[in-house]
Amino acid sequence: LISTIIDMCNGNSSLSLTHDQFDIVSGLLIKQLTEARHRGAFEMAYVGFTKLCQYLWTTNDPSLNSKPKQWTKDLLESLQSSSMTQLLSITRRSAGLPFYIQAILTTEPNFTDRANLKHVMSLLISIASSHSSSTQSDTDGSFQLVPQPSSVHALNILRG
């Protein structure tokens, strides 16, 4: 339904959603993509979110046009925050997080020179390679490298 509404807005300049309505729709889709653990739920949200991102990247309204970039910034900041990564699901390959980032990055228009894609990939690689800690085994005293949740999420997003 959300995809259809966005398609109608895209093809008809007299039909549009308000900024508040865009915030409600995007908030609902982002919540589904970041919190749902059932593949069917976040796959359906992905379809609508992809349409929304396509619309937002190309709209002439600067306050709407900047939203996809802001969403990636917010997610990357959350991944780097240990308190937030505990709330995100590591199970099921980070659930909808890869879909969330994929929808934003694959819809970024070529005229932006894919600046957001380059920035996000650089940060994800950095997060994936630098966040681990060692822990001592109770049985033999050896140390093991244990990836932190942020690193796991970054790797799952990269493998998308």
Order of helices and strands: HHHHHHHHHEEH
Shape: elongated
Strand content: 5-15%
Structural class computed from helices and strand pairing: mainly alpha
Mean pLDDT equals 79
Q: Span between N and C termini?
A: 25 Å
Q: What share of the residues lie within helices?
A: 55-70%
Rg over alpha carbons: 18 Å
- Count of discrete alpha- or pi-helical segments spanning 4 or more residues: 10
Reported for the largest beta sheet, the result is:
2 strands, antiparallel
The low-confidence runs, each spanning 5 or more residues with pLDDT under 50, are none
The neighbouring-strand order within the major sheet is 1-2
Total beta strand runs = 2
Report on the architecture of this protein.
The chain is mostly helical and 160 residues long. It is 69% helix and 6% strand. The chain has ten helices and two strands; from the N terminus they run αααααααααββα. It has a two-stranded antiparallel sheet. A hairpin with a 6-residue loop joins strand 1 and strand 2. The chain is elongated and about 65 Å long. The two termini are 25 Å apart. The relative contact order is 0.13. The model has no long low-confidence stretch (mean pLDDT 79).
